[in-house]
Amino acid sequence: MAMDTTQNITHHQEFQNARSSSVNGAGSAVLPKPPETEEVTNSNPPQPPQKPRRGFKRIALAAALSLGAIAAGGFGYNWWRYASTHQETDNAAVEGHLFQISSRIPGTVLEVPVEDNELVQAGELLVQLDPQDYRVKVQQAQAALVVAQRQAEAAQAGISFAGQTTQGQTTEAQGNLSRAVAAISTAQAAVNEAQAGVPVAQAQLQEAEANLQRVQADYGRYQTLFSSGAISRQQLDATKAAYDTAVAQRNAAQQGVSQAQAKLAQAQQGVAQAQAELSSSRGGLQQAQAGNQQTEVSRRQYAAANASIAQAQANLAEAQLQLSYTNITAPVAGRIGHKTVETGERIQSGQPLMAVVGNDIWVVANFKETQVEQMHPGQTVEVKLDAFPHHSFVGRVDSLSPASGAEFALLPPDNATGNFTKVVQRIPVKIVLDANSVKGFETQITPGMSATVAVDLQ
Question: Same domain, yes or no, for 292 and 378?
Answer without folding.
Answer: no
